[in-house]
Amino acid sequence: MTRGQANLLGLAVALLLLSGAIGVTLAVGTGAFATADSDARDRAAAAGLADRLVSADGPLTVRENVLDGATVDDLNATALRAAFPAARDRAVRVRLGGETLVETGDPAGPTVRRLVLVERRANRTLTVPADQNDTVRLEPTGAAAVTVDRSARVESLVVNGRTVAHEDAGLNGTIHLDLRRDRPTDLALNGSIRSSSGTVQIRTHPWETEAAVLEVTVDV
Amino acid sequence: MSRGQLSLSALEAGVGVLLLTAVAAGFFLVDDGADDRAESQLDTYARDAGVLLTTAGDGGPQLDRALRSEDAWAANRTAIGARARALLPANVRVRVETPRGAVGPPAPEGRPVGVAQVPTAAGRATIRVWYP
Amino acid sequence: MADRAVSPVVGKVLEIGLVLLFVATVTGALSGGVVPGARTAAGGEVADRTLASAATTVEDGVPAAGRVGSATTHLDLPDRIRGETYTLRADDRRLVLDHPHPDVGASHRLALPARVVAVRGAVASDDPAVVRVTQTDDGLVVEVTTA
Lengths: 220, 132, 147
Known about the structure:
The structure holds three protein chains of three kinds.
Chain A: H1 3-34, H2 40-54, E1 61-63, E2 66-68, H3 69-73, H4 77-83, E3 91-96, E4 99-104, E5 111-121, E6 124-129, E7 134-138, E8 141-148, E9 156-159, E10 162-166, E11 173-178, E12 185-190, E13 199-219
Parallel strand pairs in A: 2-5
Antiparallel strand pairs in A: 1-2, 3-4, 3-13, 5-13, 6-13, 7-12, 8-11, 8-13, 9-10, 9-12
Chain B: H1 8-26, H2 34-55, H3 63-66, H4 70-87, E1 93-98, E2 101-103, E3 113-120, E4 123-130
Antiparallel strand pairs in B: 1-2, 1-4, 3-4
Chain C: H1 8-60, E1 71-75, E2 87-90, E3 94-98, E4 105-109, E5 116-124, E6 129-135, E7 140-146
């Protein structure tokens, strides 16, 4: 007949066990809350800044998703913050092609990646002997400078069939041409009298583009 | 007469502990959203690839021009595929589907795939990107 | 029979009392501190995500350069967070989620192009919300308002 006391003891032990289990569950639950994904705003901020960086109306781009290499090379934290309000008062990291362009603070947030082309202008000089009525094909370039001496007896320059410069006595000096940058240009050097010597120098600025990944990390 | 009975309370407490363990374990079974994040980034890749394939303006193969006719597509198909692969990072696969045909491996099922559509001369082209 | 500790009836009453005490204590402790705290934490998370999603919708609602005219985009907001309605308002290029509970709510700065000259408006969470972008003489104006 010691059942009464044994039952009470057994109950107390059972309730203690239950309390322990409740405590463990609460600890797990609180831990889960603490480590929950809290970077929704960081991700939205990074996506927003990345949109501004690659958009066609920004200071870094030439066209949508095409960055200007020279501007990108000059980019620093001050310039970034000045041009993009979305980069102010936050820890920001911008990387391009695996190299860090700007890093302010120590952002530990999520990274948004964008595909871009980086465009750089190179300088090319072509020296062409002034044989009669030669046509030179220039790679895509927005402008060209043609330097010609009178002795070369080039009387007219024809760009894609259109005469842009003409001098009966022979062109002399440097002529600047505005060209279509998205396709090659046919430049014809026409003259009526053959020249024995004389060359024409053509300076172009073709674009070189490189595909790269722009990575933007923001910590709000 | 102390019967060797297992205390009912102990059994009840055991059931209670089991229930609480199940609740605690439930915290670890929740989806962490990684697939959604991957798909969002892949969608962005696809959209950027669409922009660059149509308006890059650097003299490279251009999707709209390549779709002007069947002959143009046949001639430029490989170049467009190569260009699309060059635009994307090395760890991403791409497929360009156009009204005149597709270039690239078939997109997988059941895994996050980013999709974007671009208007072209021949209709809508679809670009699909995924992690292999 | 003298070595009986306690009579069966008293023993049973003690048992019932102990269990009731246990249940009352645990229920009181949970509803007093743990459950409201967890609801607030969850509510804060939902508020953060709602704000981030709304900010992205507003930023995407601004038409690309070169396109003119106005644009209207639907804003998806949950009716209630932590059981209460709240307000989403614009405050000088920031989007603010105002919630009655002090620990729930956030503000987020929007990433907008320089063409956007003003961001304004407010909407209650239980009204159908839209983002309206209109072209004015000075530039684009972004407004958060009811449909």
